[in-house]
Amino acid sequence: MAGLAAAFGSGAMTNTIADIEEADVILITGSNTTENHPVLSAGVKRAVSFKGAKLIVIDPRQIKITNFADIWLQPNLGTDVAWINGMMNVIIKEDLYDKKFVKNRTENFENLKKMVEKYTPEHVAGITGIPAQSLIDAARLYAGAKAASILYCMGITQHTTGTDNVKSLANLAMLCGNIGFPGTGVNPLRGQNNVQGACDMGGLPNVHTGYQSVESLDALKKMEAAWHISGLPTKPGLPVTKMVPKALDGEIKALYIIGENPLVSDPDLNHAKKCFANLDFMVVQDIFMTETAREADIVLPARCFAEKDGTFSNTERRVQRIRKAVEPPADVLDDWKIICEIAKRMGYEMSYSESREIMEEIASVTPSYAGITYERIENEGLHWPCPTSDHPGTPILHGKQFTRGKGMFHAIDWIAPNEVADEKYPLFLTTGRVIYQYHTGTMTMKTKGLNERAPECFVEISPEDAGQHDLPDASMVDISSRRGKISARVKVSDKIGNGTVFIPFHFAQAAANNLTNAALDPISGIPEFKVCAVKISKAA
Amino acid sequence: MSTKQLIIINGNELSFKTDETILEVAHRNNIDIPSLCYLKRAAPTGTCGICVVEVKGEQTLLPACSTPAKADMVVKTETRKVIAARRLVIEQFLSSGNHNCAVRASDDKDWTQFQMHVQKDDQSSELCPAWGDCRLQDLAYRYQVSGKKFSLTKTLYPIEDVNPFIIRDFSRCIQCGRCVQACNEVQVNKAINFGHNGSKGKIVAADDRPLKDSDCVFCGECVQVCPVGALVEKDVRYQVRPRETKKIRTTCTYCGVGCQIYLHVKDNKVVKITGVEHAAPNYGSLCVKGRFGFNFISSPERLTSPLIKKNGEFKEASWDEALSLVADKLGKIKKDHGPDSIGVLTSARITNEENYIAHKFTRAVLKTNNIDHCARL
Known about the structure:
The complex is a heterodimer.
Chain A: H1 2-8, E1 25-29, H2 33-36, H3 38-50, E2 54-58, E3 71-73, H4 80-93, H5 99-105, E4 106-107, H6 109-116, H7 121-128, H8 132-143, E5 148-152, H9 154-157, H10 162-175, E6 186-188, H11 195-200, H12 217-227, H13 240-249, E7 254-258, H14 262-265, H15 269-277, E8 281-286, E9 298-301, E10 310-313, E11 318-322, H16 335-345, H17 355-365, E12 382-383, E13 407-408, E14 427-432, H18 448-453, E15 458-461, H19 463-468, E16 476-480, E17 485-492, E18 500-504, E19 532-538
Parallel strand pairs in A: 1-2, 1-5, 2-3, 4-13, 5-6, 7-8, 8-9, 14-18, 15-17
Antiparallel strand pairs in A: 10-11, 11-12, 14-19, 16-17, 16-19
Chain B: E1 6-9, E2 12-15, H1 22-28, E3 52-55, E4 62-63, E5 74-76, H2 80-94, H3 108-122, H4 135-142, E6 166-168, H5 178-186, E7 192-195, E8 202-205, H6 221-225, E9 231-233, E10 246-251, E11 260-266, E12 269-275, H7 288-292, E13 307-310, E14 313-316, H8 319-337, E15 342-345, H9 352-366, E16 371-372
Parallel strand pairs in B: 1-5, 15-16
Antiparallel strand pairs in B: 1-2, 3-4, 3-5, 6-9, 7-8, 10-11, 11-12, 13-14
């Protein structure tokens, strides 16, 4: 998100979901689309199968969507900047880029051009393992499209170079003028129902709602007036990935955690556990007794989505209604009511009759949501920005100009991941999800059928690696990294390249995040979930 | 400017777009042409023969779903000839399998014999599981058709129930092909297709394997589009009838696509989920989690009371006690160690309104900017 914001001025999906089917070429990278966004992936599959679109997939695993691909490139883990620079090297050298767009709509092109000069296909092959000709083919295909759409997900962002990776994709799209009209764009696919909304609503350390900086005097004055208060803090706060370690330092004394399960989803769990244990006070508000809730001092029960009214903002920035369908168990309160009650007890009155009233307040302090009301989204959601009550919403961003004015090219050099395979830990590990489970499984694991389809953790390994380490299919093995150890069942598969293994992170009993590396992207604060070094041995 | 091209349906002059079919023009103008096999978002197949209409100058009736609209075409949708043709088709479908709803009127002896035959196949004494939610049944009522003209059809293939989500009852399949299209043209999972042609027709996964051993990923699109009782959710079959439920539209709670869904509620319990067919972004499509992963809502493991940990063990507490304790503790830590010693992790799972309140609470009450959520994780 930080990457797109730096390049375009706005860190969200530029185009819509429906729009993907308008593309001539679709480039998917770092997204296991059929497993994690199945309904959206159907649009990609339809575009390819029935509308003549070409598909380029760049992924270290031969994921299902590669069955539909014209070109599948299999890079080494953590080499995204290199192959993207390589594609741009080819596109510039062969004069395939959109000169008019570059001239009129962007800045800093010369620096980019200079940077990618050394990323010749041959040089890139050495870093990424992608054959030079395949990279050239992919570059020509992408650059040759009238409209090309880029889809990416956590496989791009969860690296120490995550922001660099995103900026590089933005570079590629701008270079070919693939911004601002149907079938184009740079589109991060959001993994959770309301990640977009949580960001939009100021659930970030540096911004109020609608990405209004906490350091902006205008925003400060507006919020203070709206909230009848003074002395709002202006220093950006800490991201979660820094809050947790600071609990160990003693700098953070208390955490109030709502609807999250960091003790399964955080990187380097053993370390995270120590951090949480050092807190003076911890409140968890959730629908289940999660691994995290167990460690809390106070647990507050919450309502689930079927028991409340409100809105979610989906990955395409569309604000949509949710509606109460069933009564909650016992007298469980809405999350917002719980927080308001605590606020009241701390001497600040926060009182609303219903969620609609909160949305009215959101609209009054958030320019991009100013035109959104429950009445307007009764039947169909609206895409923000929607600044006025008669504005139709904005399905496609950056049409005539970028949010920041001109699009910014970033000249970026490739750097290696924080941890690489070595003699002691000879295999790369990458993590992800499977279609039948969701995140830390607190919800999906309550459905028997889903557990029947995906009952337990596994480690996917190539036949050659399995043979070399003498790990028979379906046997139990220990996987360890410098940070921890888990046991899982071997799944020998030719879908993964030699030297790399894959483990889904859903399963608390064999939490992949005991192994993962907490090294952070310096800008976004995202941990490098997608690359670390491990060794595997037969279960003791 | 060229004169507008018009088609005339039941006396109404209607404009049409290039490549639009008679059925599409009619539906767009709220003229009801019934159909069984027609599936929006897939190429028309004209398999079922229900949507036939009379077109002036044509010897035979034409399927509205696959006949393109043309200028000055004169179409009638409910003539005697059309109705007779539809009745014949409905009659054939009704007698093609275990369609044991009340529309299959017969003499007493035949009725009893038929029900007993079906009950043996079904291992149940109930009427068809799709009763009340069946397009064939609706059509039979509309055109006052019963299935008695034709003799009973033998059941060729046993029910498949070895997967956790979908019951495939081949005895009630009318071979309309909607499930095949949904799987291949809408979801493009390519798990099922037509197999065993002719009177032994069967919809099969590759090599006629059960779904659980096929490429099926249990999106359930086939169940949603099945117009009869051949494909039914396992947990719904004989447990829930449509008249017992109310439908509430909402947004799915899993990934960021934001599929529009109906929660089907019976006795304060979500018992089934279907996709909203007329709305973006999913137009009825769902995935396995969105369609079948709802048991958590009414799980007995749900937290129901505030809990306060005392001596390492959680004890139930009143809301007032728990909320006051949270307020006291946070207040004290804020006073002793400053606002920035407190952090709030809000959630990508809760609503915008709730996130807004969490953001306001953190900044206005705790007076810190230490707020974040799991977007990064």
